[in-house]
Design brief:
alpha+beta, 26% helix, elongated, four-stranded antiparallel sheet, single chain
């Protein structure tokens, strides 16, 4: 004679019938969150060290720039489709199940996806900014204002070993990695269409927190040393001078 009461048996049977429904609901909610609100991303390379380490998982706010403006110093995730080549190559294993699981894990930020085309970099220049390297102290200048990057720049790195002098195109961003010698960023694509800048429409959202591993957990905030108001004022002054110069007889 069974020790399981009829009522308990019915409860167990009901649980197993409801389980697939609960799994589907959980997946749908996760998909909605990932598509419209927040998404986890896996850090596959060292281009943002020491701010972000290889293997870190970060959460990205996809609504950050729906209700606010992009600022210099923000860390953003963006799509490099049809513009930048992948920083890492994740080869297919040749096993359909393994590759499918890897793709699912990549979609939810648990691993690097095959043919990864999403990038994470720091915003240095906004549309219309004049960005150049470097002044006599070796600092990058934005609209003639040198920016102090010691807060996040990788130890031992110069702001840039390559000189450049660009004006960021309209509706585009100039983006650099914190580990400058290990980052194939806007500097590496100056000769490409767009001059290395990335369209704002390609931005997925702003990275705002590291969620894994526990040792790296923490908020990702904008650097205090970058004075966006001062740089904006310098850009406005430069624009006024250019307009007055073009209107002179």
């Amino acid at each position: 004679m069974s020790d399981i009461e009829p009522g308990e048996s019915r409860k167990r049977s009901s649980f197993w019938r409801e389980l697939p429904v609960l799994v589907v609901i959980a997946l749908v909610l996760a998909f909605i969150l990932k598509t419209f609100l927040i998404q986890a991303f896996f850090i596959p390379s060292g281009s943002m060290e020491n701010t972000l380490q290889v293997g870190d998982r970060v959460m990205v706010n996809k609504l950050a720039y729906t209700f606010g403006d992009i600022e210099r110093g923000d860390i953003v995730v963006f799509s490099g489709v049809d513009s930048w080549d992948p920083e890492i190559e994740v080869a297919d294993s040749g096993n359909l199940i393994t590759d499918s699981l890897r793709s699912v894990a990549g979609a939810f930020g648990f691993a690097a996806s095959p043919n990864e085309k999403d990038y994470i970099k720091r915003v240095i220049g906004l549309p219309g900014d004049h960005v150049e390297c470097c002044d006599k102290q070796g600092r990058i200048m934005v609209n003639g204002i040198p920016i102090d990057e010691t807060e996040y720049l990788y130890n031992g790195n110069e702001p840039s070993e390559d000189n450049f002098d660009i004006v960021v195109p309209d509706v585009c961003l100039w983006l650099l990695g914190d580990h400058r010698v290990a980052s194939a960023d806007s500097r590496a694509h100056i000769g490409d269409p767009g001059g290395g800048a990335i369209p704002i429409d390609s931005v997925v959202g702003r990275a705002f927190v590291v969620i894994w591993p526990v040792s790296d957990m923490g908020l990702l905030t904008g650097p205090e040393a970058i004075d966006n108001d001062e740089i904006d004022a310098a850009q406005h002054e430069r624009s006024v001078k250019q307009e007055s110069g073009s209107s002179s007889p």
